[in-house]
Design goal:
Two copies of one chain form a homodimer.
Chain A lengths: L11 H33 L3 H32 L3 H34 L5 H27 L2 H31 L4 H33 L8 H9 L1
Helix pairs in contact in A: 1-2, 1-3, 1-4, 2-3, 3-6, 4-5, 4-6, 5-6, 5-7
Chain lengths: 236, 236
């Protein structure tokens, strides 16, 4: 990002402030990533304390969003940034909105874990574990790409979402078979299904984050465009 | 909104532009409301043409979001609005993001309808119909509150979300019972469940929209606050 925006600024005050906001976004991202990691650990180990901790810490994620939101509004009002700087600030606003939603989905996963997971479901949980690890890796990679403003890495995350979707669909089919074979398991399997759905949604959010990176670096809106169009724009 | 912001402006140019953006938000809202209405009709009547139409028209919703997003960025860059005007523009950005997500959920509902609904599920669909009507009413009311910047009406929508959540939980329980009694129905019931979930999420988004109205009128951030706190702020 440094080479993209910061070096061009006239106002060194803006530089300093935007750098601080950027650090806050990375801190928020780190917290969200940690939350997801802990939620997955809670599921894997039926760890109710850890699940409760994730639920409690969601407030911190929300606080970050409000803080950064305020900082963005303040920098716009005070520094009146021009086009490319403004684009950066606007994209930070979108980024934190997605991070906050990833936090929400993570809290949902922890709530399900707290209510209902037990050793009877070990077989089912193995599937969730793989999907979880996959999505967590996506989140890790997109935050890394964000820190370095790396378009190629963002593009890789963007494409990864399709694989996550397929994995999610496979789990859904498998869980349905499980329910058909043993209807008494339905309420418990449903909980696993909701968590799988939450993970799939987190994958979607990571895809959004990768779009923002491409937008910031390339200056082209790539949202709502199809994959080949996006790839062309990212590499042009 | 007129009495709140527009009369205070020095720049009549800003007035005109923000009024146009506001009109576009209302147009986007109207389209999203219509989309949900059509998706519910498609479910009720197993109308595949209508479902396909909803799916196709989601592109229009996305186009509106990009258009208004651009307009907001442009008005900030060109008019450099001060605090309360900037707050208005930032809140419009959040509003259209939620409207776009409501559009996404609506498209999902239409896709499920297209794939899988048939007369065998008439009993189940009646439940979805009630929940759908309830959520659609919420969307209608919050857009109406938005047009008039009516805090009391926004507060009513905000509270309504709890009732939608309870209705959704009741449907989930009922559908699970149905699956347990007739395991062959599971794949079809699952589709109804996903649509119920989408409707519940639309309710959440309407709640967000009502928070923005309260924020705009009262100037206090009410997101992430609990209901009594929000009510106190809204009425202070």
């Amino acid at each position: 990002m440094d080479t993209l925006h910061l070096s061009r600024h006239i106002s060194s005050q803006f530089n300093e402030e935007i750098e601080q906001i950027r650090n806050h976004v990375m801190a928020m991202g780190g917290l969200v990533e940690q939350q997801l990691h802990h939620a997955l650990q809670a599921i894997a180990n039926s760890d109710t304390d850890k699940a409760q901790q994730v639920i409690d810490n969601d407030r911190k994620v929300n606080d970050w969003e409000l803080t950064i939101d305020n900082e963005c509004t303040r920098i716009i009002a005070r520094r009146q940034p021009a086009a490319s700087d403004l684009r950066l600030v606007m994209t930070i606003l979108k980024t934190i909105a997605d991070l906050e939603r990833i936090g929400d989905e993570t809290r949902r996963i922890a709530m399900v874990a707290l209510e209902s997971f037990n050793t009877e479901q070990q077989d089912l949980l193995v599937n969730l574990d793989n999907l979880g690890r996959h999505v967590w890796q996506m989140l890790h990679d997109v935050l890394d790409a964000y820190a370095r403003m790396d378009v190629e890495a963002a593009l890789t995350v963007y494409k990864e979402d399709k694989r996550v979707d397929r994995e999610y669909e496979a789990i859904t089919r498998q869980l349905m078979t499980y329910m058909i074979e043993d209807p008494r398991s339905i309420p418990k399997v449903m909980n696993v299904l909701w968590s799988a759905r939450s993970l799939e949604r987190i994958g979607d959010r990571c895809k959004n984050l990768s779009e923002y990176i491409i937008y910031l670096v390339k200056g082209k809106v790539v949202r709502h465009s199809d994959e080949s169009e996006l790839e062309r724009n990212a590499r042009s």
